[in-house]
Write a structure and sequence with these properties.
This is Thioredoxin reductase (NADPH). Keywords: Flavoprotein, Oxidoreductase. The protein has about 290 residues and is of the alpha/beta class. The protein has two domains: about 180 residues, FAD/NAD(P)-binding domain (3-Layer(bba) Sandwich); about 110 residues, FAD/NAD(P)-binding domain (3-Layer(bba) Sandwich). The chain is about 30% helix and about 30% strand. Strands 1, 2, 3, 4, 5, 6 and 17 form a seven-stranded mixed sheet that branches. A five-stranded parallel sheet has the order 8-15-9-10-11, covered by helices on one side. The radius of gyration is 22 Å and the shape is elongated. The two termini are about 30 Å apart.
Length: about 290
């Protein structure tokens, strides 16, 4: 039995495992190999790692964990249950692993609106976070899709990176319209039905009326679908410091905080790792007191 099993091998999970392995805990990370930012060529906003490919960060993290005796195993966790004072995690290959504590860092999925060609450009010239991708498309003609009420606010943010920003959407609250106009954002009262690509570059969008508008980058508010199946099975809801409502179960990163960028998810994972170790220390001290009659 491991001290801790971490389900999820992204920034949050690896950070938790690094803290725990350095604390001399036996740790296993189960990694399905599907990080949220996998389509992106680079990640940004991570101090000292700005511009690093996401896969490279994870590879370095796995190597660091191994250097402290931690293990990373490729696989998919399909279920988790409490057994005695610990937990058992079942894997898709039929194997199972047990641990005293369980950390869930399984991230989320970005669900895009059903617009032709949009998914194929995701992580390239179609993005959702201006703080992650705004600099790379600065001063370009940018479009923001109003497929969600959050689109108007997103357009206000994107305007920080370009003077040529157009909001596309057939439904826009008058208050939001006023804010966009005041900030110098163009408004097209029509929905986008297709993304136009030429020579593997986004060149514009096609509207519901058949007209086309030239754009070289798009921002779109996505629906955040948390990969929280294991937490749901256990009846665990996130509380604070990485803890959940189920003793011994912890969670960090995008599975509980969809707005967390890589650096924030990593920090949350590190904090959760410290919380786990602290709780284990207190449990062990209590058990030792009982043994010695103190």
């Amino acid at each position: 039995m491991y001290d801790v099993v971490v389900v999820g091998g992204g920034a949050a999970g690896l950070s938790a495992a690094l803290v725990l392995s350095r604390a001399r805990r036996s740790v296993l990370v189960i990694d399905a190999g599907e990080p949220r930012n996998q389509p992106a060529a680079h990640m940004h906003g991570f101090l000292s790692r700005d511009g690093m490919p996401p896969g490279e960060l994870l590879a370095v993290g796995r190597k660091e964990i191994a250097g402290y005796g931690g293990e990373v195993r490729a696989g998919r966790a399909v279920s988790a249950r409490r057994e005695g004072t610990g937990f058992t995690v079942e894997l898709a290959d039929g194997d199972s692993v047990s641990a005293r504590r369980l950390v869930v860092t399984t991230g989320l999925r970005d669900e895009l609106p059903p617009i032709e060609g949009l998914r194929e450009r995701w992580g390239n010239d179609v993005a959702s976070c201006p703080y992650c991708h705004g600099w790379e498309v600065r001063d370009q003609p940018i479009g923001v899709l109003g497929t969600d009420p959050r689109g108007a606010h997103q357009a206000l943010l994107v305007r920080q990176w370009s003077d040529d920003v157009v909001y596309f959407g057939s439904q826009l609250a008058e208050e939001d319209r006023g804010k966009l106009l005041a900030r110098g954002v163009g408004i097209v009262d029509s929905d986008v039905v297709k993304v136009l690509v030429d020579n593997d570059e986004l060149v514009g969008v096609e509207l519901a009326d058949g007209s086309c508008v030239k754009r070289s980058a798009l921002f779109v508010p996505t629906v955040f679908a948390a990969n929280d199946g294991l937490l749901a099975q256990l009846g665990a809801e996130h509380t604070s410091d990485g803890r959940t409502t189920v003793p011994g179960v912890y969670a960090a990163g995008n599975v509980v905080d969809p707005m967390a960028q890589v650096i924030i998810a990593a920090a949350q994972g590190a904090k959760a790792g410290m919380t786990v170790n602290n709780d284990l220390v207190l449990d062990e001290a209590g058990a030792q007191r009982r043994v010695h009659g103190l």
